[in-house]
Design a protein that fits this description.
elongated, 4% helix, 5 helices, Lipocalin, 4 domains, Immunoglobulin-like, single chain, eight-stranded antiparallel beta barrel, six-stranded mixed β-sheet, mainly beta
Amino acid sequence: MFKKIVSMFMGASVLMLPFAFTMPAVAVTTTWDVTGEYVIAVDYEGTDYLHDLSLTQDEDGDLTGNGGSPAGSNVYTWDLTSGMVVGNAIDFLADYTATPDAVTPQTTMHVVGTIAEDGTMSGTWTDNYNGGDRSGSWTSTEGNASPAGSLAAEDFGVVNYDTGLGTLKGYSAGFGLTDATFSGAQSVIVKLFAGDTLLQTNTGTEKIGDEIIGNQISSPFDVSGDFDYVTDGYWTNARESEYGQSVPATKVVATVILENGKTVTAENTNLSGDPTTIYPDPVTATTTVKVTVEKFVNGTMATAASADNSDFPMYSTWDAENIGAGAGNYVLSETNTTPYQAVTADMTMGADYSTKEKVNGSVVGAQCETGEPYALKGYTTGDTRAAAIAATPTMTEPSFTNLQTNKYVIVWNTDCSNPSGEIGGEVVGSDGVLEVTSIEMIDTSATANGTFTDGWEYVFHITAPSSEEDISMKFSDWLRTEGSGTIPVANNMRISSAQADNGGATILLTAANVYSTPALRMDEDLDPVMAGRQVEITVEVAVPAGTPNGSYTTSYGVQSN
């Protein structure tokens, strides 16, 4: 069952490869199946003569069959001697078998045509009736060809191994196409079931059909591993409440809409392997909880350097069965066991806990205008550190009652000593995949003196379509998040790229929300192995003299053509 895995990883040891494994494409060119009964109108010298036509097409596209006229009561009959369907083209030869005038001398008819999107057919014909040379056109009037292609189940088994994108501890299901490939597939959906209960659904991304062009595919269903579907990029995975963690999967069903519009399905109930080996390890019951509090400055975890060795005063209250009720002060500082992180003592489940930062003191103010070196931007909470970091800050002080799980609190501060900037935005692509894969913050603290040297600097890591060389960017004016204050884009921002043909020269932005001109014309690729063109664009911002201290935000757009 691992044959497709081996075929993908051979000779590619330095790459993290997709989990939409594909075998080498086979020579499948037939996209229509004309097997069926037809009536065709054969035009000769302006008159249509209706013929019956019966066709059978094999998996290679070869044709057999017969026909005759007039339709419904054949007098003249003929048999196909050869024929082929390739793509949307049909071509066959037929010898007349009756009447005598069409047999002696032997009349051979040559028919060629095209299959339309609705399955109707039309084309031209020639024959040598009575030693002559006749020709005309033909059109099907009854019967329709159907899109070719079928899907079959292959392997379906329990797996547990490191993929390079995390451990896949769950199931793998393989399927294969006949008379078709995944090239240009409109939709690929694979569902995992326990009986009739849906466990997980994998929906193929646009990469399947663009990059997966063979006739075999494998779909992963992670149960208790940490397989990274997002980085893999080939499947969007949706899980039901019970996604196989305590019940065995018994069935997998794939539904594919091919490029020609035909829908094909396949089901596999022949599971190999022991599902109990991929269930999560039993969770040890816990009777205590704790709260972790962390300090973030200008969007990142504080360090002694970024926080200038400052001690941030905090206050908390608690009420737990094991430690009683109380209140007290503590600090988030560089001297914490983990710098700028505090962790409560273990508290009995059901405990109450609250915390807040002390503002309007000597370290933190409610906003930068009050004169303290830092301003409180808000709090976020979550069951995990990642969830707390991803949440939207609020000025509501964290307060937990009846704690049943561990919690995380992030205290967000703005450095008021220098203006700081944060960027968010969107991507607009005209053709193909355009993506900002990451934004590297080189310098997010600036001196307000109007120079790019002392301003902010960011590096955008971008994947652009290989066929689109020109890249432009636009930004909105920077707005201060606390109080009034604006940094105009015009003449205060510029972009450049070492991969552009202008040799790294900068392009000055002269207006907000307007794409930069001229565009950066990219003639290099930082990673030719990866799909698309990999480039880096440096964005620089000069902060005008007199700009109020504080945190500023903007939004961006990226365009390729």
